[in-house]
Amino acid sequence: MSMFLEAIDIRKSFGTEKVLHNMNLRLAEHEMLSILGRSGSGKTTLLKILAGLELPDGGRVLLEGKDMGRVPPNRRDMVYLYQEPLLFPHLNVFENVAFGLRLRRVPEQDIRKRVQEMLDNLELPEQSRKMPQQLSGGQRQRVAFGRALIINPKVLLLDEPFGALDAETRASMQQLLKRIAEDFSITALFVTHALKEALLMGDRIGLMQEGKLKVYDNKKAFIDDADTGVQAELAFWRGIG
Amino acid sequence: MNVKKFGNKLASLGIILAVLFPFGFLLMLSMGRRWVFPSLLPEVWTPDNWLAIWGMQSGLGASLALSLALSLGIASMATAGSFWVSKQVAYHRHRRRWLAMAYLPYVFAPVILAACLQYFFIRTGLSGKFWGVAIAQLFITFPYGLIFFTSFWTERMLSMEHLIATLGGNTWQAYARVLLPVARGALLTCFFQLFLISWFEYGLTTLIGVGKVQTLTLKVFQYINEANIFFAALASCLLALPPVVLLWLNKRYVFSIGFSGPSRSGKSGSKDQEILK
């Protein structure tokens, strides 16, 4: 039986450097898979290939069983979110969130209603007329989520979205994302290099190492595997205690 | 205290007068006739010189129209073209090589560049023609625009474009809704600078135009050579007018833009904590 999103035998090299080696991935609908990996392990390349922003050297990407090989990024219905919120600097919060709806020529009345609902959901109802440079880092990231979620994408590709936030804001944003992932039944890939974040965010967890992805059946299997670094982390904290 | 204030005001007035004097002097000369030593001012004051702009005899009106058409056309074409081409160069793997080539026209003076190219313009029948001068001016304005815009196309802009694509936008929508509005200030500044380069261009226009393409800048030098100071002053006034208008437009529309380009989000600080409480 085919999964909601599948990547089959994906290969990618940049020059002589092999970034992804026959990488496979299966993601069910409404599931959030977090992928842990160090810098340069190929996480971003994988997300970009899934979004259609990079072409793989080989392999296939299937969404709902349909081959995405020749489908351009703007027709894949997969939104790629960067570490930086990348809000459009000439548009206010309302227009940033409404951006995808305006591209789809949604009627003005619907836009107003849906954007207001989204801003309420993201706890930003008072900020709608503010410009991006008037917002804090956490608020910007919320607007970026709102801009992506309002078009109901089939898959959300999150590339270390909280990497630029301080520890406290990061923790709050993780909780917010967990809540909206449930409310909106999101299907998502969440890429991070932070062990705790990977454990917290994913329904399942994968480990990316040297261009290969290993997805664990459950969190216990992930914790028990010495390669993930969880055991080393636990030993460190026990040592301090 | 009062003496200091008075001194400051006097200094300000002096600076303003020093800046405005050449323009005032040119304006005065443009309306004068018969200025013979030892008279302090021209003996006859008349608007006839200005009225001659509309007459066929002086050719000033035609030169003004030609210069405006040439400079506005060059500035528009070079700005639009270099904006698009600079993007291809900025994201090309041989970016440095292409940029180095863009600097080549500036290794020589424009007049030397014109001397090098003149043979080809003669062979193609473009020498002495409006289109010949236009193409020759593009040789110096287009690379300028290319160099100007290359710094606009950063990794951040590329990421923004990718984001627009995954949000469902096509290339046209990306340009119309984000890239062009974000680049508005840069586009206007580049247009203004390219207009000025073309407007005041002399050496290259003289060589390729072989005196047949009479731009206003050439007209000024022609009147100076003829020792016709009144018409030279009039042509200079006309020469100064469009840049002044553009300067005013630039001040009003470029510097009044309410944002300073894409902002970089850093680590959030106390503002976040306040909001999260």
3D architecture notes:
- The complex is a heterodimer of chains A (241) and B (277).
- With 241 residues, chain A is an alpha/beta fold.
- Chain A has a single domain, classed as Rossmann fold (3-Layer(aba) Sandwich), CATH 3.40.50.
- Helix content of chain A is 37%, strand content 24%.
- In chain A, strand 7 (155-159), helix 5 (167-183) and strand 8 form a beta-alpha-beta unit.
- In chain A, helix 2 (93-103) packs across helix 3 (108-121) and helix 2 (93-103) runs parallel beside helix 4.
- With 277 residues, chain B is an all-alpha fold.
- Chain B has a domain at 70-257: MetI-like fold, CATH 1.10.3720.
- Helix content of chain B is 72%, strand content 1%.
- Chain B is built from twelve helices and two strands; from the N terminus they run αββααααααααααα.
- Chain B has helices at residues 2-30, 48-51, 60-90, 95-103, 110-123, 130-150, 155-166, 171-199, 203-209, 216-225, 229-254, 270-276; strands at 32-33, 44-45.
- In chain B, strands 1-2 form a two-stranded antiparallel ribbon.
- Chain B is globular.
- The A-B interface holds A 48, 51-53, 72-82, 84-86, 88-90, 99-100, 102-104, 131-133, 136-141, 147-148, 151, 153, 157, 164-166, 168-169, 172 and B 156, 159-160, 162-163, 165-170, 173, 177-178, 181-182, 184, 258-269, 271-273, 275-276.
Lay out the secondary structure.
The complex is a heterodimer of chains A (241) and B (277).
Chain A: E1 5-14, E2 17-27, E3 32-37, H1 43-51, E4 58-63, E5 66-67, E6 78-81, H2 93-103, H3 108-121, H4 137-149, E7 155-159, H5 167-183, E8 188-192, H6 195-201, E9 204-209, E10 212-215, H7 219-224, H8 230-240
Parallel strand pairs in A: 3-8, 3-9, 6-7, 7-8
Antiparallel strand pairs in A: 1-2, 1-4, 4-5, 9-10
Helix pairs in contact in A: 2-3, 2-4
Chain B: H1 2-30, E1 32-33, E2 44-45, H2 48-51, H3 60-90, H4 95-103, H5 110-123, H6 130-150, H7 155-166, H8 171-199, H9 203-209, H10 216-225, H11 229-254, H12 270-276
Helix pairs in contact in B: 1-11, 3-6, 3-8, 5-9, 6-8, 6-9, 7-8, 8-11, 10-11
